Each structure stands twice: as structure tokens, then as C-alpha cells.
Amino acid sequence: MRVRLPFGRTLYFLGAFFLALVALLPMRLALDWFGVGERGVAAREVQGSVWYGALKEAQLGTAGLGDLQAGLSALPLALGRARVSLSRSEGTPAGEFRGAATVTRNTFGFDDVTGRLQLTGAFGQLPLTQVDLGEVTARFENGLCVEAAGTVRAMVPGDLGGIALPAGLTGAARCDAGALLLAMASQSSMESVELRVFGDGRYQANVLIRSTDVALRDRMTAAGLSLTPQGYGMRVEGRF
């Protein structure tokens, strides 16, 4: 004997089956599905489900993010966006981290990120070791920066060409000619770093020390800087 289920009940079971699949979807598969990994976000190990997972030793390109909790937000999915919240509590050794990565068919970005990026060795001879982000938002559409805001503070220990650099350079995030620009300067404005990040993962860092003392030329040249009308400068280019 053939038993017919009411159409409404059939839809109910199909919907329940679909929700069960989504609820049990591993976080690793979800990140691959939404293309987050293609945008430079990676981790040594991904644990848990799509709603509550963990990223161990997470990275954004070559910048270290540390261990993070991660979870997919349900409401943005209805609007065609995949939004993965990222967080770490303030009491952890690496300090607080919070924000989100958002992906659509044509856009990728980060929303309201507060936390620290570990950059040791990421920029070659440029001695940037870490950047602290304060409510930083950055969004790329079709590879071009269309929205950026928030504050940044870079730690630059050591010296260049025998000139001691200030411990911290501060500035703001904004879009500039299609790139994400982090423009930072010391309190005296004598030293500055402009870091441009492009949608394809390339970066360009311009360093400027506003001194025209020719007696420093040999040491500055040995450190990779050259004398310009504004002072001693250096450009470092690469890819995250």
C-alpha cells in the first residue's frame, strides 16, 4: 500500500533535513564553501561546526591572528552575505580580538576589527612587528577598496640606519585609489609609514624619515633608504 504524506509535512521534513545538514556542517567546509580561504584567511587547524568553531593559529596572509573563536551569522545569509564572526577574550595571553569577515559574490572585507596583527618578518627589511587595530572596517568590491575606517597603531622597534625609531606610529585606515591605505606617523611626524594593501593580496609600504642630514647618507643607504627631497625613504613591496 502506498502512503502519501501531505505536501506541507513533506516540506517540513525536507526543511528539517536541510537545517540539520547546515547545523552539522564543519567550519572548515564552510570557510572553503564561502571562499574565505581564497581571500587569505587560513589556520593550522579548524575545529567545530559552522555555528561555533575555532581557528587555531589563524593567519591573514602572512600576518598572525592567533587562536580565534569563529561562527557564522545566520541573518546576513538571508541577504546574500556570509559573515563569520571572529573573537578572542581579553583575558587570553594574546589579548582581545573581535570583528568579522564578510563575503559576497563580488565583495570581501572585515567589519569593526579590534585586536593585534603579528607582522614579524612579513615586510622583509621593514621592522614592523605588530599592528593594533581599533574598530577597523575594510571592504573590497571587485578587487577595489570601497570602504575603510578605524584607527591603527604600528610597533616599530629598533632603528633604521642608526636612527632610533619611535616605539609606535599611529594613524587611520582609508581607501586610496582602490587600495586600503594605513597611513601612520610618529607623534613628531618626523617618521611615517604608509602601508597600501590591494585587493589581490599585494602590499606596498613606504617609509619616510624626515631628515636631510647628508652625514647619514652612507648608513641610510646601507639600510636600504635613499635621500629624497622630503627625507630618507624606502619602498617595500610584496604579497601577503
Number of strands: 17
Tell me the fraction of residues in β-strands, as a range.
over 45%
SSE class: mainly beta
The stretches of 5 or more residues where confidence is low (pLDDT under 50) are 1-21
Order of helices and strands: HHEEEEHEEEEEEEEEEEHEE
Major pleated sheet: 15 strands, antiparallel
Q: What overall form do the CA principal axes indicate?
A: elongated
Mean pLDDT over the residues: 81
Spatial separation of the terminal alpha carbons:
64 Å
- Rg computed from alpha carbons, rounded to a whole number of angstroms: 23 Å
Number of helices: 4
Helix content: 10-25%
SSE topology sketch:
Layout: H1 7-23, H2 27-33, E1 41-42, E2 45-48, E3 53-60, E4 63-72, H3 75-78, E5 82-88, E6 97-103, E7 107-118, E8 130-141, E9 144-155, E10 159-160, E11 163-164, E12 168-176, E13 179-185, E14 191-197, E15 202-209, H4 217-222, E16 226-228, E17 231-239
Antiparallel strand pairs: 1-3, 2-3, 3-4, 4-5, 5-6, 6-7, 7-8, 8-9, 9-12, 10-11, 12-13, 13-14, 14-15, 15-17, 16-17
Written description of the protein model:
It is a single chain. With 240 residues, the protein is mainly beta. It has a domain at 119-239. It is built from four helices and 17 strands. It has a 15-stranded antiparallel sheet that branches. A hairpin with a 2-residue loop joins β8 (130-141) and β9 (144-155).
